[in-house]
Amino acid sequence: MKHKHAELIKAWADGAQIQIRDDLDDIWLDTNSPSWVAEYQYRIKPEPKPDVVRYYEVHKEFGGPLQSPFHNIKATYDGETGELKSAEVLSRGQE
């Protein structure tokens, strides 16, 4: 009879990072030496989602738009949470 976690065991033997589910805190934790208990939940650690970078054009609040429109703000968002990580004011031609 095939072990319940056979595919994960093979992936772990080939170098995959395995995680075990902590039901109390509802999170996945890295484990380097899984015990492969049938009642536990395991998975291959997912690849992190890359950050998302967006460029924006911000105009003057008073006195009309900038002389020549260009993207002057670079915003970086966390790929996992979507939260803003950083914002940078760009000079012309820096984009």
Main β-sheet: number of strands, strand sense, barrel status? 3 strands, antiparallel
Class from helix and strand fractions:
mainly beta
Low-confidence stretches: none
Radius of gyration: 23 Å
- Annotation field: number of helices: 1
* Whole-number count of domains: 2
Q: What is the overall silhouette?
A: elongated
Helix content: under 10%
Task: Give the overall pLDDT as a whole number.
Answer: 87
- The tally of beta strands, per DSSP, is 6
Quick recap of the structure?
It is built from 1 helix and 6 strands. The protein is mainly beta. A hairpin with a 4-residue loop joins strand 1 and strand 2.
Please characterize this protein's 3D structure.
The protein has 95 residues and is mainly beta. It has 2 domains: 6-44, no CATH class; 52-89, no CATH class. It is 8% helix and 31% strand. The strands form 2 sheets. The protein has a 3-stranded antiparallel β-sheet, covered by helices on one side. Strands 4-5-6 form a 3-stranded antiparallel β-sheet, with no helix packed on it. A hairpin with a 4-residue loop joins strand 1 (18-22) and strand 2 (27-31).
Helix and strand arrangement:
Blueprint: H1 6-13, E1 18-22, E2 27-31, E3 42-44, E4 52-56, E5 73-77, E6 84-89
Antiparallel strand pairs: 1-2, 1-3, 4-5, 5-6
Label this structure with key terms:
mainly beta, 2 domains, three-stranded antiparallel beta sheet, 1 helix, elongated
